[in-house]
Specification:
Layout (H helix, E strand, L loop, with lengths): L1 H7 L3 H14 L4 H10 L10 H13 L1 H15 L13 H15 L3 H13 L3 H11 L5 H4 L2 H32 L4 H21 L7 E8 L12 E9 L15 H10 L3
Antiparallel strand pairs: 1-2
Helix pairs in contact: 2-3, 3-4, 3-5, 4-5, 5-6, 6-7, 7-8, 8-10
C-alpha cells in the first residue's frame, strides 16, 4: 500500500498515518520504516532532517540491538551512489553497529557488505570501506554502485588510504591516552602554549580559517622524535579552534625542523 501511496502522490501526513497503522501490527518490520523514510527525503515530500530524525526516533523506539538493525536498514534505503545529503546526517557509528548486529544474527551477506562499503565511502571512512571491499572481492552489487567503474574507483581509494588512516587512528589513540594520564593535562597545555605563536603566525597568512588538529611526537628530551636520535616520549594532539588546517605546506611553518628549533628554546 505504501508503494501505491507514493505512486499516487499522497501527502506526507496521509502517508505517515498509513505507516502508523501498518507498523502498529509489526513494529520491527523494517520495510514499512524504509519506505516512509525515503518518502521523507527532500526530493519527495519531506524537508531537510525529516528522514534522519525519523530513522533515529524509530530506532530508539524499538531500542537495543533491534533498533540498531532497523537504523542500518533505513540507512540502506537512503544511501546511494549519487550525492544524497540527507544520508550524511545519519550517525555513522550507529550504522556500523546495526550492520554488525545483522551479521551476527543472520551471517554475512554480499548485498549487505556492498551497502556497508558504500556507506563507508560516503562517510570517508577508508578503513571500514577497505575491510568491506576485501570481503566483497569482485562481487559488486550493480544496483548499489550503478557502474563497475565507480565500484573500482572507490575500492582503489579505500586500499590506498586505509593504511594511512589506520596509522593516524593509532597515533590519535595514543595521544588521547597520554592526555588522560596523570601528567597529561599539564603537558598538553604547555605544548599548546609553546606552539601557539607559531600557529597563529601561520594562520594570519592562510585563506582556510577552519579548525584543525595535528599530531606531534616528542622525544624524552622535549624534542620531536627523530632529531638527535631521541627516544619517543609519546604522541600528543595539539588543537586549534579557529585557525587553518595543518600543515602550511608552502611555508612549512610547522615542519619538524621549525618545531624542533622552537622546542630547543622552550622545552615542554
Amino acid at each position: 500500500m505504501q508503494l501505491v501511496a507514493k505512486a499516487e502522490g499522497w501527502d506526507l501526513a496521509k502517508s505517515t498515518e498509513l505507516f502508523k497503522e501498518a507498523s502498529a501490527a509489526a513494529p520491527d518490520y523494517y520495510y514499512y520504516h524504509r519506505y516512509l523514510a525515503e518518502y521523507m527525503l527532500p526530493k519527495w515530500e519531506g524537508e531537510e532532517g525529516d528522514a534522519t530524525n525519523f530513522a533515529e526516533q524509530s530506532a530508539n523506539r524499538l531500542g537495543g540491538t533491534k533498533g540498531d538493525m532497523l537504523y542500518f536498514r533505513i540507512g540502506e534505503k537512503m544511501v546511494c551512489a549519487c550525492d544524497e545529503p540527507e544520508f550524511k546526517r545519519l550517525s555513522w557509528p550507529r550504522l556500523q553497529k546495526g550492520y554488525e548486529a545483522i551479521e551476527k544474527a543472520y551471517g554475512p551477506s554480499i548485498s549487505d557488505l556492498n551497502t556497508l562499503a558504500l556507506m563507508a565511502t560516503k562517510n570517508n571512512d577508508s578503513v571500514a570501506a577497505d575491510s568491506a571491499f576485501q570481503r566483497i572481492s569482485d562481487n559488486y552489487d550493480i544496483d548499489k554502485w550503478v557502474t563497475e567503474d565507480y565500484f573500482k574507483q572507490m575500492k582503489t581509494w579505500a586500499s590506498q588510504f586505509a593504511p594511512l588512516e589506520a596509522r593516524s587512528r593509532k597515533i590519535q589513540a595514543e595521544a588521547e591516552a597520554n592526555a588522560l594520564s596523570p601528567e597529561g593535562p599539564v603537558y598538553q597545555n604547555k605544548t599548546e602554549a609553546t606552539l601557539a605563536n607559531i600557529v597563529q603566525a601561520c594562520a594570519k597568512e592562510a585563506d582556510d580559517k577552519s579548525a584543525f588538529q595535528f599530531m606531534l611526537q616528542i622525544g624524552e628530551d622535549g624534542i620531536p622524535k627523530g632529531r638527535l636520535g631521541a627516544r619517543s616520549h609519546g604522541n600528543w594532539a595539539v588543537r586549534s579552534k579557529k585557525y587553518l588546517r595543518f600543515p602550511c605546506e608552502e611555508r612549512g611553518t610547522l615542519s619538524q625542523a621549525s618545531t624542533s628549533r622552537l622546542l630547543d628554546k622552550t622545552r615542554v
